[in-house]
């Protein structure tokens, strides 16, 4: 089993996609998605924010707030993350 597969499984196990998501789960999802999407690094908060449909000047703000415990990603955003971890691609392509 590769490190990429291990990270993705860990992120999937950490979050079922049905509830709000925060903290280490978001950080691990960024790492796993970066590997899954061929980035060879974790996604930036802004890249994940754009993949989740956050627009405007700071698409990564909600992601960073979830990682620091200031807020949680919405249940809808958490479901999208879970789908992405299962191999579904963002509708606008990989950021």
Low-confidence stretches: none
Mean pLDDT: 86
Counted up, domains total: 1
* Radius of gyration over C-alpha positions, nearest whole angstrom: 12 Å
Structural class: mainly alpha
Q: How would you sum up the global shape?
A: globular
Major sheet details = none
Distance between the termini: 27 Å
- How many strand segments? 0
What is the N-to-C order of secondary-structure elements (H for helix, E for strand)? Answer: HHHHH
Query: Per DSSP, what share of the residues sits in E-state strands of 2 or more residues?
Result: under 5%
Number of helices: 5
Helix content: 40-55%
Tags for this entry?
single chain, 95 residues, mainly alpha, 54% helix
What this model shows, in words?
There is one protein chain. The chain is mainly α and 95 residues long. The protein has one domain. The protein contains 5 helices and no strands. The chain has helices spanning 3-14, 24-36, 45-51, 61-68, 75-85. Helix 3 (45-51) crosses helix 4. The longest helix is centred in the first third of the chain and has 13 residues, at 24-36. The model has no long low-confidence stretch (mean pLDDT 86).
């Amino acid at each position: 089993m590769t490190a990429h597969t291990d990270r993705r499984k860990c992120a999937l196990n950490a979050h079922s996609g049905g509830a709000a998501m925060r903290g280490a789960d978001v950080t691990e999802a960024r790492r796993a998605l970066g590997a899954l999407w061929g980035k060879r690094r974790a996604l930036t908060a802004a890249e994940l924010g754009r993949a989740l449909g956050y627009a405007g000047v700071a698409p990564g703000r909600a992601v960073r707030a979830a990682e620091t415990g200031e807020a949680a990603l919405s249940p809808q955003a958490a479901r999208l993350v879970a789908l992405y971890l299962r191999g579904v691609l963002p509708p606008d392509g990989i950021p």
